[in-house]
Amino acid sequence: MNVFASLRTALRELRKNKLRSLLAMLGIVIAVGAVVATVSIGQGAQAKVAAQMASLGSNLLMILPGSMAMHGVSTGTGATQTLNRDDANAIEKELTSSVAAVAPISRTGAQIVYENQNWFTQVQGTTAAYLDVRGWPLAQGEPFGREEDAAAAKVCILGKTVVDKLFSDPSRVVGEQIRVKHVPCKIIGVLAAKGQSSWGQDQDDVVVMPWSTVVRRLIGTQSDAVGQLMVSARSPEQVADAQREITLLLRQRHHLSDTAEPDFQIRNLAEMQNAAKENTKRRQGEHQHHRHAAGERGAHLAGGGGHRHRQRHARLGYRAHARDRHPHGGGRARARHPLPVPHRGGGAGQRRRRDGAGDRRRRVEMDGDEVRLADAALPAGNGRRGAPGRIGRRRGGLLSGATRLTA
Q1: Do 204 and 94 sit in the same domain of this protein?
Q2: Quick one: 155 and 219 in the same domain?
Q3: Over 60: is that where the pLDDT of 134 sits?
Q4: Which of 129, 149, 245, 308 has the fewest CB atoms within 10 Å, i.e. is most exposed?
Q5: Are residues 114 and 141 in the same domain?
Q6: Average pLDDT of the chain to the nearest whole number
Q7: What predicted TM-score, i.e. pTM, was given to this entire model?
Q8: Does residue 45 have a pLDDT over 90?
Q9: Which helix (H) or strand (E) holds 231?
Q10: Using an 8 Å Cβ cutoff, are 140 and 190 in contact?
Q11: Are 204 and 164 in a shared domain?
């Protein structure tokens, strides 16, 4: 068939059915738009989760102190101080093949004061490797080094939230003097904005200082215990190897037997990232399925659902007897009588016969070995259902005055 002839035929049919063609096009647009919107929303959610998890750091392992049990009562994670600076130094020096950097962290809360402004925030004491482990660049200034950590220097780096709360002009922050608790501190840098974490914490509401400064000057202790260790593996493929090697090294350093429970916990954030991505993909698939089904229903209703609905009612009207249809129309069939209705085709169970002279009906019924014959004459013109001249009952009952014949 010629292509142009087919095109002319198609256009002619579209002109004949303008409304149906318009509704079909509308249904297709709705279905395609629903699928595109679902895919876009899912990809955006997946990218947002990936960005939030990546803000914690790449190839990251978190080592936390373990719990302890006293008199049958077990404490939670971090109740004991089982990690120290020597553990961090051992991991950094002995596991160079799989570990890129190690950062010990000790936290405390402090009131920050600048001129007539103040703000309570979290202060983290750590080393120069912290920014590398977290993958956290500086927006202004420069980081502190090993010399500041060894000398417990009074320097600090502020997060963006702290800068916004204390300073009216964020561009003139580096070099200013603030007070952290009772310790005067010089601002040497401002962290780049990271936003909220995956669990809703504001990562920019923080002050970073050298570990020795926080522990010795703010907390006021000479202990080398740390709150946690953050370890960065050299590549995503080496995260599992780094976790296994760190476990063996810390068990050896803490003099734990092979059957003893470890006094530390290692959390693999790469596994958390993968779990979050899989959860996002699963939800994306569910939303896409629901949106696709909704688009198909819209296309069905817009393109031909009404026509098929009318065809279904037409089939019901054809199949249902006039006596059983709803009295107000609509094709709805009422519930039939629980007893079977005899076939109207004229079988052995029931026969109807009309004479030309008048309305005479004869019905023969078989009941076991007996034959019941009902024969009654009706006046002419009184054959309507429900008329007073009707003798007997409907639904196959016997007519009054019937003569019984015995075989």
Answers
A1: yes
A2: yes
A3: yes
A4: 308
A5: yes
A6: 75
A7: 0.58
A8: no
A9: strand 228-233
A10: yes
A11: yes
